[in-house]
Amino acid sequence: MRKPRATAATSGPDGLAPAGDVAAIVAGTHGDPFAVLGVHEAGKGFVARCFVPNAEFVTAYTLSGKAAGELSRRDDSGFFEGKLTLRKRQPLRYHARNAGGDWWLTDPYSFGPVLGPLDDYYIAEGSHLRLFDKLGAHVIDHEGATGVHFAVWAPNARRVSVVGAFNEWDGRRHTMRDRRDTGIWELFIPDIGAGQPYKFEIIAPDGVRLPLKADPFAFESELRPATASVTAPPMAHEWGDEAHRTFWRSADPRREAISIYEVHAGSWQLRDDGTFLSWDELAARLIPYVADTGFTHIEFLPISEHPYDPSWGYQTTGLYAPTARFGDPDGFARFVDGAHRAGIGVILDWVPAHFPVDAHGLARFDGTALYEHEDPRQGFHPDWNTAIYNFGRREVVSFLVNNALFWAEKYHVDGLRVDAVASMLYLDYSRKAGEWIPNEKGGRENLEAVAFLQKMNKEVYGHHPGVVTIAEESTSWPKVSRPVHEGGLGFGFKWNMGFMHDTLEYFSKEPIYRKHHHNDITFGLVYAFSENFVLPLSHDEVVHGKGTLLGKMAGDDWQKFATLRAYYAFMWGYPGKKLLFMGQEFAQRREWSEARALDWNLLDHAPHRGIWQTVRDLNYLYRSRPALHARDCEPEGFSWLIVDDSENSVFAWLRSAPDGNPIAVISNFTPVPRENYRVPLPKAGKWREIINTDASAYGGSGKGNGGVVEARAEGGGVSATMLLPPLSTIMLEFVPD
């Protein structure tokens, strides 16, 4: 056990603290309270000093209960000091009394530091990869006592104190130790445990007391609108997901089926009284539903702590804390474990692109632009009225990289989808000339953000095999999903925003005009393998007046449903991983709002049930047929069969993989059935129809080919003649003899 280092006593020959020090402690302005308070050498013995407001008498005891001396009140505000009968320096407990009663407290200033020189070294270097074990609030045993160790980075502060109900939110009582080499302030407070709300009271460099700040490393927070951090117990969950994690550690995710169900946890379903489901209630409902519908992963919109519901979590103030809206942190761990035991991965939306300027958050944390840039041309985001992280500061990069590692380690998440990457990559993003500062080479690329993203990806993939990162990147930045050593950003996947935009634009056109927009469908295959793509039909497409996917389809109601089914099958047959936002799997009619649950009653109506059944069957096919997923990211798995029939708005291609039978995907995007339509195929023989979105079971007209077509060799090639149902996609799988 490390003993406290002797501190040069701030005292006179009689062991008394100078009057100036006493006044500064009482006023809360002393720059180094550990030099005054606690246990100090005085001649051949020791003295103790403490600040206990409201006390009239204080007696010192050792932690074992042995009396160690009476302390005298030097200042009526509660400053006490006195000689001790101790032979060696050690932590103390105090018995305090006044006319109204008595109480016990353990002296935090009689304990030595928790952090050590190696922590200082790695923190200063920016290479510490376990900051979440050192910073924040941790319930620990230290030098014979149980309490909470607090540590926070605030290098420019004059003073930092821990405040909470345990000290009546009085910043004079628990002023922290300044580790000057790193700018870290730390304090071990004995006698308190888990479940205590707390904040940091920070005095800025100019002497101004800032609004109380939440802990950037808080592992738990109060439920909004309250904003305090909460001391969290060590995570007690016993995991049972090793089989799931072992599988993904050894898998190549590019060659696995990944079908993602994007969820806003606060509005998927609600209780009957309109309140949020807890994590356990979500687990009981959401996990079986996702398993039944056939998705492989759940992707949550950000679930880290955030103050404002309509931000959907994208303006986070607590990157290390699962939001209190759904219960305690262990509840989220139980959810992830339950999903894994059901074979479902969990991906989190992660937001290093910006942070809100709420007074209790990171903005001007110690009175200076600490996490953000001072210059608003670099540190202010015009789109969201938020701050932008200073990616050129190693402590900020370390804070964010550690957060990515934290979710992978502590909560076993399977992936991070990084929001708004484009806004990070470009210094002139959403800015006019003169509103941004070029990089050192005179360009508009944010080289510091690039280096941060590369470091984050290297550390995540290096330390947590099986965890994937996914970029929401809306530009043509090269090599987003290529390894860092090849000059890439290092992401595992990238959202294909072009696919989403082009296809939705195409399906919004009346069928008679689609022949003039044929290129909206074919163009995507020009670049389909330039990145490892996820095809996203995300929440962004069903908010802010954009309507719903069903509403975006052209035509009357029957045509809308038929087109949406055909679109989904087209997408599930298209190269790339799949993502669908909640509610779209049953054709939600109302635009999504975070303030209400999805319209689950729609599943009682046949057209909506038919959409859900289509998605369910597509997920089954996608997962069970290697041809549909094993070469999602490689051009060898795709070849056009029909690319130029714009007149009929017909598209056909072949999906293939070494371990599976080839599958032809054929779409007819007009309401006209195509009789005796000839489709070239690579092999003669039987091709079984494994899905037909016009099937009557889905709500279609029931037209088809009796479940099978015969391909024959004719005129130097192989082809099959078939019926293409109206507004449909069919898939044909080769059946070997």
From TrEMBL:
Subunit comment for this entry?
Monomer.
Q: Does the keyword Glycosyltransferase apply?
A: yes
Q: Which reaction does it catalyse?
A: Transfers a segment of a (1->4)-alpha-D-glucan chain to a primary hydroxy group in a similar glucan chain
Q: From the UniProt record, which GO molecular function terms apply?
A: 1,4-alpha-glucan branching enzyme activity
Report domain Glycosyl hydrolase family 13 catalytic positions.
Answer: 262-629
Origin species, per record, is Mesorhizobium abyssinicae
Pathway annotation from the record: Glycan biosynthesis; glycogen biosynthesis
Name the gene behind this protein.
Answer: glgB
Determine if Transferase is one of this entry's keywords: yes
Q: What is the protein name stated in its UniProt record?
A: 1,4-alpha-glucan branching enzyme GlgB
Q: What is the role of the protein in this entry? A: Catalyzes the formation of the alpha-1,6-glucosidic linkages in glycogen by scission of a 1,4-alpha-linked oligosaccharide from growing alpha-1,4-glucan chains and the subsequent attachment of the oligosaccharide to the alpha-1,6 position.
Q: Which family does it belong to?
A: Belongs to the glycosyl hydrolase 13 family. GlgB subfamily.
Q: Which HAMAP family match?
A: GlgB
Indicate the transmembrane segments per the record. Answer: none
Enzyme active site: D419, E472
- Database matches in InterPro entries: A-amylase/branching_C, Branching_enzy, GH, GH13_cat_dom, GlgB, GlgB_N, GlgB_N_E_set_prok, Glyco_hydro_13_N
Q: Which UniProt keywords apply?
A: Carbohydrate metabolism, Glycogen biosynthesis, Glycogen metabolism, Glycosyltransferase, Transferase
Q: What class of enzyme is it?
A: transferase
